[in-house]
Amino acid sequence: MRLSGISGNIKTNVQSNYDCLMRFWTRTSYIHTQRYVHHLKEWEQCSLQDQETIMGRTKEDNIEFSAEQKAPVAHIKRVNLKDEQGKSMEILRHSMPYGDARESGLFFIAYGKTPEHFNRMLQAMIKADAG
Asked: Which pairs with CB-CB distance under 8 Å and at least 24 residues apart come from 57-63?
């Protein structure tokens, strides 16, 4: 934080308050929620191979493909991101199916210590879909 132009006790108090606020924010959690509507009739018309390619894992036994086997637009490849230091950008994921006779889908919740990880994952999914 830049405190030029502020002097004496005011500068000390401002810096102290800023430091206290930053310690508070570093212990903060973020929650992102999304509701996805599934179009299962269309999904089931895709071949098993296409479904597995799109997800990046086998459908029957839920085994993740190796890095070499994953398509560039596979869901798993798009959301398993690394930061500038090569560390995984982790979030805790929680999802619950919902539905009735007219509509079904997934209610998704992501928890994290920063909003950056989820935002970058969402961007990676959107950019892949747009391209």
From this structure: none
